[in-house]
Amino acid sequence: MAKVIYRKSGRRAVYPVLILGGVLLFGGTLLNAFWPKRTQIELENRKAAQFPAFSLSNLLDGSWQSSFSNWMQDQFMLRDTWINTQRATDEILFQKVEEGGILIGDDRWMFTKLFSMDSAAQAQTEKNIQAVCDFAANHPGKVTFLLAPSASVIYSEELPAGAPMIDENAVLDEIFARVGENAAVIDLREPFTDLKDEYLYFKTDHHWTPNGAYHAYEEFCRQQALTPFDRDAHQSVIVEDFQGTHYSATRLWNVENDTIEYYQLDNPMTVYRITGEAQYEPERTGSLINVQKFNTRDKYAAFLDGNNGYSVIEGNGEGSILVVKDSYANSFIPYLTENYAKIGVVDFRNFKYGLDSTIEKEGYDQILILYNFQTFIADTNLIYITRPSTLQ
């Protein structure tokens, strides 16, 4: 019988692998320590975690370790590249159609996921409907209510196959029926469906486009018997390569960047610092479109220079209107300069008072409440609209 000889597998063969692993680990840690740190994560439009200050109490209660972990995650070298690679792998190899609460549909559409309304959302929706109804009843003949449908309602065929979205149409029907008892309502579903081949919503962001806002504005003008802003009579500017909040969540590898078209208007806007009930003082005055923000990642914030608590815009028309809004109204309001001499703008995220005193003090002729559906059902601030107030 032939003698079988086995090769001895000594430990020396393992050493190079261990050494190489140690060098890579130590080298990577050392390189990461000296990698440039950042204060802002542009793709996510948020501040980056900074190295936490050490204290014994923070160490003992675990908060320092948690803060350190957040710092490591935010400041890790090539963080965005690693995330983009992982997301691309998920989409290409595993055909993943959801990321960060965003659905990735056909033709590179991205939609906010809304599969259900839990009891909290239902309760908040009921509160907001009642608040608008009560407010409109207190200001008879003055209030118009415009609730923009989600992009997924207008472009439902672009959703991932079988996505069990809520029946938004049924909820909108109920909202419009109830609010319509005390206010004029604008339902955009039919006109937007007729115009769906136009550029109505961004693909990478949760907002409508300025073109979508314009067609909503046309419906408002039709209802109010106003002559619409003439886009052909104004110079337009197109901003390229807009990647919105949906892209920040998905990092879609084959993203189709959006464009923003706006019109050059020189109407001044005064932003007020709010000091109390119907008490505010000018904080700054500038253009209603801050073009400098088109050079940043959050390009949509150029409209109205963001979501200020109370602002007043000088228009070219007659009379006055107060717009109570979420950020959908930001690209809508510039068109109103054609029709009103004075446009007040309230955003309850930064205005924690009722409106009665402001309406009386400023003498607004009309009131427009403009929200998008998904903000409306979740907004915990809209109830301020019915807070009792008296003129100071």
Structure explained in plain terms:
The protein is built from 12 helices and 15 strands. The radius of gyration is 27 Å and the shape is globular. The mean pLDDT is 86.
Put the structure in a nutshell:
The protein is α/β, with parallel strands linked by helices and 392 residues long. The protein has twelve helices and 15 strands.
Give me the secondary-structure topology.
Layout: H1 15-34, E1 40-41, E2 46-47, H2 56-60, H3 63-75, H4 79-93, E3 98-99, E4 102-104, E5 110-112, H5 119-138, E6 143-148, H6 151-154, H7 168-179, E7 184-186, H8 189-194, H9 210-224, E8 236-242, H10 245-250, E9 258-263, E10 268-276, E11 279-287, E12 310-314, E13 320-325, E14 342-346, H11 356-362, E15 366-372, H12 373-376
Parallel strand pairs: 6-7, 6-15, 13-14, 13-15
Antiparallel strand pairs: 1-2, 3-4, 4-5, 8-9, 10-11, 10-12, 12-14
End-to-end separation in angstroms reads 110 Å
> What is the 3D form?
globular
| Quaternary structure of the protein | single chain
The percentage helix is 25-40%
Mean pLDDT: 86
**DSSP strand count:** 15
Tally of separate helices: 12
Keywords:
392 residues; alpha/beta; 3-stranded antiparallel β-sheet
